Structure formats: C-alpha cells, structure tokens
Amino acid sequence: MTYSYLSHLYCPKCQETYKASEPQHLCTCGSPLLVSYDLDKLKEVWSPEHLKERTPDLWRYHELLPLQDPTYKTSLGEGMSPLIPLPTLQTDMNIRKLHMKDEGIIPTGSFKARGAAVGVSKAKELGVKELAMPTNGNAGAAWSLYASRASMESTIVMPVDAPKITRNECALSGANLFLVDGLISDAGKIVAEAVEKSGLYDVSTLKEPYRIEGKKTMGLEIAEQLGWNVPDVILYPTGGGVGLIGIHKALKELQELGWISKDRMPRLVAVQSKGCAPIVEAWQQGQRESSFWKNSETIAFGINVPKAIGDFLVLDALYDTHGCAVAVSDYELLEEQKGIAQKEGAFVCPEGAAAFAAARKLRAENWITAEDEVVVLNTGAGIKYPDTVHIEIPVLQPGDSLQTKKTIR
Amino acid sequence: MTYSYLSHLYCPKCQETYKASEPQHLCTCGSPLLVSYDLDKLKEVWSPEHLKERTPDLWRYHELLPLQDPTYKTSLGEGMSPLIPLPTLQTDMNIRKLHMKDEGIIPTGSFKARGAAVGVSKAKELGVKELAMPTNGNAGAAWSLYASRASMESTIVMPVDAPKITRNECALSGANLFLVDGLISDAGKIVAEAVEKSGLYDVSTLKEPYRIEGKKTMGLEIAEQLGWNVPDVILYPTGGGVGLIGIHKALKELQELGWISKDRMPRLVAVQSKGCAPIVEAWQQGQRESSFWKNSETIAFGINVPKAIGDFLVLDALYDTHGCAVAVSDYELLEEQKGIAQKEGAFVCPEGAAAFAAARKLRAENWITAEDEVVVLNTGAGIKYPDTVHIEIPVLQPGDSLQTKKTIR
C-alpha cells in the first residue's frame, strides 16, 4: 500500500486535468481545481478495519489525502474533534437526534487548522518556501502557525478590524504580517500584487487545491463517528464554503469506496448571516452562481464573504443533496449562542451559533422534521471572540457576602 | 465488569478512611481526601486491549474513574489531547526527545475541563444541585460550563482582574457570577461563607476529592500515547498542583496494574513563576509544606497561588520521583512563548511557556540530560490570554503594495 492514492487534479467547471506533481493554482478557465484519487485501487486494499490502530487525528485518512511522503507531514494533532450529543437542545428543538461537531477543540481553535495542516504539508512537499494570503482572521492564524511548524515563511494581510486574537496568533508565529485599513478584498488585492511580483505561493481560499482536502476530513470523521452512517441533515456556516464543498466531496468518496451506503446522502445546509447572504439569495433564485453582496455586515466575521470563489460548488452540493440555504440575524445567533452555553455548557463561536439558529428555524418550518438526525458544525471556539459577550456582572468588595448582594439585586 | 472500581476515600495525611457513597470534602484533620480503587480486582479483568475500541476521550479509562453510573457522565468530548513531538525545539535545547502534551485542545481551552468533567459528573451522581467556587478564571469557566451541561446551578466568585475571556465563559454559562475587587483569597472567603450559610457544594481546589481524578487522566494518556512507557522527565506548571498530584497518582496506579514498569518513574518537575514560588522555596529547603508567598505577582495568572492546599502532596511527588521545583521569570516565559510559536507553530499559554522555559534552564544545568525523553504540559490555549502578546504591526492603506512598505520599514 502507498501512503496516498492521489491521482491528479481536475477542473469541476471545464473538466481540464492537471498534474499534482507540481504547484497548481486555478484552472485556466478561472475555476478552483479539485483533487482526484484512484478510488478503484484504494477500494481493494483499504477498509475501516485499518483505522482502528491509528491515532485520533485527520492523518488517519492519509490514503484519501494528497500528501505522498509522510516526511512532510506538518501536524499539531488536528482532527477527530468530538461529535457531541446535545440532549437538552434536541428536546428544546424537538429533533430526534442533534449532534455538534465541535471544531473549537483543535489547534488554533478553529476548523481552519484542517485546511492549513494539509495545505502546508503539501506545499512543503512541493518545495514551497513562502506562502501568502489575505484573511479575515482564523485562516491567517492557522496558515501562519502551520507554516512556522514547517519552517516556511508566510506573508499575511488582514483587515484592522479582524479579531485581535487572530492577529496575535499571526504575529506570534513570526509571519510577515500586515494590517490593512480596509476590507478583506483590499487585503486580497495587496496579496495578489505581491504574489505576481515576488512569486509567493498563493494560498488564498481555493486558489490552491489542497485546503479543501483538509476540510474534507470533517465529513470523513462525521461518518466514522456515526459508525459509517450519515445523518439526515448537516448544517454548515458558510463564508467561503470550503468545508461544505469538502464534506460533500468526502461523502461522495466514501460512497465510491463502499464505506457508506450509496442510497443516502445528508441534506446539506449552507447557513449565512442576513447581513451577508449571497448563497442564500442565489439558492432561492435557483442560480448556479451567487452575486456580490454589497455592504455586507455581520458580527459573525468568518461568514462575511460577499462573493465566494467556490460559490458554484457550494450551490452544486446543495442542489445535489436536496439541501437548502438559510440566513439568520445577528440577534438570533447571539441568542442561540447564549442558549447553547446555558443548556449544554458549550461556548460556540458566532458562526457555529448561526448554524444552530438555522436548525431551529428549519425545524419550525418543518424542513427539518422531528424524526431527523442532525449534525451542526461549530467551526470554532467561542473564546476567540471575546467581544460578542455582553453581560452585566455584580462587583463585590472583599468581606461582602453573597446573601446581602442577592437581596440587593 | 463494573463501570468503576472505586473503593473508598482516604486521607493521605492521617490515613482515615471515608465512604465514597456520600458527598465528602476535607478530612477532619484538614487534609484533602484521595480516591482509592480496587486495583487487585481490576488487574484481573482489565488490559490495554480493552481501550482499542473506545472513543478518544478521558472516559476510556472509566474503570479508574470515580463515576459509578454512566448515566451521570457529563462530557463535552474532553481528553486524549495530542502529545506533539517538537523536533525543532528539541534540537534547539539539545534534548533527545521533547513532546508537548497540549491541553489547549480541549473544551473550554484549558486542562481545567478534565477536573470539571469528572468532578461535575460525580457531584451529579451524588445528588448535588448547586456547586460553588472561587476562581482565578479557567477553573470557574470549566466548572460553570460543565455544571450547565449537567443542569446544575453554579455560584462563581472571581477577582475583577481575572482574564476577561474566562469571565465571559462563566457569564454565558448562566452561573451566578460575582466579581470581587480583590484577590482569589477574598473570593475564597465569600464562597466559604456562602457554602456554610446555604449548603452549596464546595468545589474549591481539592475541597472535593474528584477533580484530581479528572486531572489524573493526563498521566494515563501520556503513558498510553508513549505505548505504555513513561518519559524520563515531566514538567508541569504548578499553581494548586492538582495535575502534578494527579499524574503521580495515575502512574502509581498503572504500576499497580502492571501496565507500566515498576522500575521506572519519570522525575516530576513543579514549575513556578519567580513572582510566586512557594513550592520551589519549600523544595529547596527540603520542607514537607510550603509557606504563604506574600505579594505574589506574575503574568501567568494560573500559577499565582501563594499557598496551595495540596502543597504537601506536590512536594511528596517531587521527593518520591527524584524530581525538582524550579522558578522562571515573566520575561523568560514570554520569550519562550514567542520562540515556541515561531519554531513549532504552537501558541501556548503563559503557564505552559513557563514549563518550557524551565526545561531549557534545567537542560543548561544538565539536570535534564541530552539523553532524556521529556514531556512538557501546556495547560491551556494561548488564545485565552490576548493581553500577553505585544507586537507592533505595520498598517497599510487600500492600494498600498507590500514592496513599498518593506522598503519603508
């Protein structure tokens, strides 16, 4: 058996193929590229039995990942995040089974670690010395830290408004970090220019084909954690949508391998904010691509993406699985965030909270039925967003007693 | 086989025994109580083979944990945090093998989750309805969130200076949260009074016997992750010292069970800050207990404990394993924190950074030799402490290019 069954790259839009043995970015037609594996060959030699002795991280699926030489594996122990049952919330929402895939329990505190681990490892294998990207925060944090782990240079540009904690992470990693007094699109232009002038390796969302393979492992893990079954519905907070595309790809590959049934695919749900809902708008109109969302605004920074480069792949996944797209307000997601902490003890990020709010909404509309088994992706730790919590707390003086204070209240 | 081989509680100071079937706090002699298991019986029926099919969390060791009825298990997927090799840092320090046990990758972002998961589960089993504790931050965050998960009330008192993120966690959990304009000792007095007046269940450090059993699982995991071997040295940032006591207890129990060799115990190292080093002082003087450290001050909030209730157990563990205690300065730990991020891509907490700085110091003194295998505990995620990072970052305007800016710098 070989370490990876990587075969080649292909364009999902024009079907052109590319060699995976050298660095590749977008297709000449402008589309992101996807990774293809020799599933027929892999099917003959690989079974779930092989996973039993492997460590609980995403590299347990190395046959289905693009890295060919494990020497270049760049890992901080990412993956196999818990799939947590939420009994109180499921009763509250009247859903048969509700689980949270908790991506807060991962290096760098967000699901971006998966894409970075696989993307940096593959870049290292391809001989890349310096990578560059614009970021709204979490992706830059993950890629710059994994780059350091791989002894690779990184250049990161982020808006001044991006969460301070993610800025700390990039700065501490030793990245060439720049803030821009503007939006992520301004950061993107600055990076694009630097890439062109200096030959840096561009790891902007979907501009290299391997990040999606890292994100894909969320789908592989959900299936394994459910005993090689799939739920009825998976909800995913959607900015760039890489994770949703990845989960869809993962489940298709598992079907090809015969590890899960070909008869059943979960309905995938793209969750967005009402302040930035281009995928929702496109899905409602039955479009194959989204339009740029003007003046986008939401407290859920990670899903503030006005026009995703992979939007057509997200929409494909929704149509293919009879899924849907739904938007929630900042108020709804903040209420849900509070409710989840109080009912289940989990402090989810605003993006994850949006996905729970969407589940509640879809249940109310009976799009999710009382009989469904539902998995919600929480894409990061709530602790990364200290500014979303506003609760008044009484201050005591030394020697005060709680009794007194309670009466005063 | 039964779920737990819990036998009874005992006092490590005066040897008095107590029933585990009802709530217990300190011994009448004032010492914390420890949990005893029926290891002779367990030895006959349990082997590492049993663990292979179990999920990667701390409940895989349920036979060695105090919860007797799994119905009361209160879990958010905690445990089996990665043991990460640090090849660059180990070369830098000239140590044969250096690993980090990364407790940042756990619910609530700190190792306190382990104690809370097991402590809250057992409290629930014992019929507790409302718990109370003073906290410097992370413990309160963990216990209040796990209490919510168990539908239990919690009363938490923390200094106004405790990290804001941990305050958020407590507040969001729905705890009865109070700030005190003073120190943790002031918080402790307020909680003690409330416990006495209102009969709340006191879960202050070591005032209930089960937190240590949760922390113990760090030791079980290290042994399992090294293939049922132990390293030569384990370094642990020591405030209350519960984790160090727990790791020592765990390894003793594994020796009794015959899962690891009786001939070898790692040298345990208690790491403190120069601004609060009571254990170090006591160890240097060969004392069995520490003295209160006046005017303690350190940026590593979690190890700012002037006098630990379990100090004698920490010192016992050091003497028993031929370990030592060592203090580092805030400057040293902040430099180490930066170095680890740049060399290995890991953003550790200040307390974890202190333990790495101590490893470097002990290696320089040749107390750690070039032939040793060393495990350092990083007790939490660096992202929980945004105020420890101060790095100047250049700000660009939209349309600027990196080239220009680099020249200006």
By CATH, the topology of chain A is: Rossmann fold
What is the count of distinct domains of chain A?
Answer: 1
Poorly predicted ranges of chain A: 404-409
Determine the structural class of chain A based on helices, strands and strand pairing: alpha/beta
Radius of gyration of chain A, taken over Cα atoms and rounded to an integer in Å: 21 Å
CATH class of chain A: Alpha Beta
Specify the biggest β-sheet of chain A: 6 strands, mixed
- In terms of quaternary structure, the protein is homodimer
Major β-sheet strand ordering of chain A: 4-5-13-10-11-12
What features would you describe in this structure?
Two copies of one chain form a homodimer. The first copy, chain A, has a six-stranded mixed sheet, with helices on both faces. Chain A has a four-stranded parallel sheet with strand order 8-7-6-9, with helices on both faces. The first copy, chain A, has a three-stranded antiparallel sheet with strand order 2-1-3, with no helix packed on it. Chain A has 409 residues and is α/β, with parallel strands linked by helices. Helix content of chain A is 36%, strand content 16%. The model of chain A is unreliable at 404-409 (pLDDT under 50). The interface between A and B is large, with 82 and 82 residues.
Task: List its salient traits.
disordered C terminus, Rossmann fold, homodimer, alpha/beta, 36% helix, 409 residues, four-stranded parallel sheet
